[in-house]
Amino acid sequence: MAFSPLTSGCSNYCNVGIGWKSSSWFVQFGFFSNGVSAKPTKNNGSKGFRVCASSSSSSDPLLVKAARREWVSRPPAWMMRQAGRYMAVYRKLAEKHPSFRERSETTDLIVEISLQPWEAFHPDGVIIFSDILTPLPAFGVQFDIEDVRGPVIQSPIRSEEGLKSLHSIDLEKLQFVGDSLMILRKEVGDQAAILGFVGAPWTIATYIVEGGTTRTYTKIKDMCHTAPHVLRALLSHLSKAIAEYIVYQVESGAHCIQIFDSWGGQLPPHMWDCWSKPYIDEIVSTIKRKCPQTPLVLYINGNGGLLERMKTTGVDVIGLDWTVDMADGRKRLGTDIGIQGNVDPATLFCPLPALTDEIRRVVKSAGTRGHILNLGHGVLVGTPEDAVAHFFNVAKSFDFDKVEDHVSEADKVVA
């Protein structure tokens, strides 16, 4: 994988230590000089649910059609973190299985939890219950999840020595993900899109370098200046592993994949250009080559200053957080890309008529083509379940074929 964008449009520090690609230690640790793992990836032999390069079909779920900017009669809707602690049925299950890793790495529990919101609300997307850190042990990074501290990386990588622990992703260690997706696909069929997801390289790297959750990102930002060759090697490894993980999810049954660059918004835009975008570009390029019909959604928390940059990654849909005005986001991104979001999660604590008004405002601002209704972030703990049900009921009440006032100016231009 060649990262030519790394040297374009970046500050001088982005070019420091650019000779790392040909260094002896880099080759020794299992990489070619172009950044590709020298060790062949071991496929887990999954039978696969479908061929990645399958063509568009009239039976595709509503969400997939909207992601491809095909005409739909209403906005498909799902919620980030829609399976989780706000649901009483989830909390009851968690009492019996208090370990988050057990819940997110055991096929039966993954399927049961993933289907809880489907059975309760019938959203248009059923996202697998998992975590962006789930694949880490499969390529050499061990972690724990503690009740108070959250994710804890046992051996943070901040030096060339730390890179020695990395290896090609072993998909056999992630069979519970593949099995869960296959079961979900069979359970839901084409009534809703099965959604897989991954963390973007920069976001995953923040945990690996910082040693866990952080609010300051000081260690990894320091590495951008003091050990750029180490950070680039880590990000290159992550981009390849994540791309393979996406292909695996698609082969196992995922209709659509969301890439969470959750902490990309913690970077100034010029640093995001150097330290996040090139690696997302590489992942998108790989997936578009291997799974061209699989829509990709990119979400960044705090993305108001990055929208135009996000579009150039080549993803199909940009997710907006709630701090971006939907009409402004649509204007900035144009009508040739999908858009997702962006109701403020706190609105679900408001009276239901206020929630209805906000949903209608967001849908009208986004337009009738290429919009996936969602929150601007995940469902908050304590969110009333009747508000979640109301959210989906309102979404299903739209009819773009009949209601003229849902047609935005952007749609009129497209028409």
Question: What descriptors fit this protein?
Answer:
single chain; alpha/beta; TIM Barrel; 7-stranded parallel beta sheet; two-stranded antiparallel ribbon; 16 helices; 40% helix; disordered N terminus; lyase; decarboxylase; uroporphyrinogen decarboxylase activity
Brief account:
40% of the residues lie in helices and 10% in strands. By secondary structure, it is of the alpha/beta class. Strand 6 (296-299), helix 12 (307-311) and strand 7 form a beta-alpha-beta unit.
Overall description:
- With 415 residues, the protein is an alpha/beta fold.
- It has one domain: Alpha-Beta Barrel (TIM Barrel), CATH 3.20.20.210.
- Helix content is 40%, strand content 10%.
- The strands form two sheets. It has a seven-stranded parallel sheet with strand order 1-4-5-6-7-8-9. A two-stranded antiparallel sheet has the order 2-3.
- The longest helix has 25 residues, at 228-252.
